[in-house]
Amino acid sequence: MGTRRIATLGAVGVMAAAALVNPVDRGVATPAAASEATPAVRTATATPAPPATAGLARLRWRLARTTSWTLALSDAAAASDLRGYSLVVVDGETTSAGRVRELRRNGSVVLAYLSIGTIEDGRWWSQAARGHRLHRWQDWGEWYADVNNSEFRALMTKRVLPQMMAAGFDGVFLDNVDMVESHPRQRSGMASLLAAVSRDVHRGGRLVLAQNGDGQLRWVLPWLDGWNREDVSFTYDFDTGRYRRTSTAERAQAVQAIRRVRAVRLTAFSTDYLPNPAAPAAARQVAEAVRYACAVGAKPYVGSIGLDRMPRTPLRC
User: Which domains does the chain have, with CATH numbers?
Assistant: First the structure.
């Protein structure tokens, strides 16, 4: 779905932990072979890892042990008290380096939200991407991007992403990789873009997460450290303008995707949507979403569709 923004381990110990928790080798697949890529098994080594590799292993270890997380993409949510969250995702453009440092000092792994499948009006780079627009996505008021265009991919990898990472984030949370499901001719470009982003971020010792795209997991997962599935138990229906419980078939599809992610031992997350998850009237629905996500091995979160309303306290299994 579109952007939700409205407004001490030693090196050896880290590598051993990574071998147990996250054995997918993100550096072997190539875009040309991505559709057939099979995650390879990472093995532990007694040789000290290079700094970036050790740092990445440490972050993967922390990611796998996340107890609570939040998608705090609105300005108000990002500025709120986020202590107690193991993982925090905030807007990669509007969140200052100072705020990133503060969140990290509080003990959170902090990721920068970035949509690489759409062009959002109001971004500092949106004018430079104007010539790479496809048609407008009315639900979110943004444009699908021509990711097949090498100039657009270079804009994202050479300008946008480095500027975000310079703020000190622990990694990136990618959105709209799944735009290829409605634009299948863009798959080759998206595979190249995702591979380039993953290589660059991993070389810096940082994490790469993405969300959705159940039908694209075969070629997407080898590049990732974690994956989020939206709309598992509760969703927002743009056609009716209402929140609703997902159908039995929709839940079954979500569970199948989460289990596929867990089968390659990646960290799985879930996000459900309710009008106000902090409201007393929503307590039973929030509890239901948490139970369901935890039962299938996903780390739960519940927010409003604009991700400007959060639960009263961090949600945990």
Answer: 11-303 (3.20.20.70)
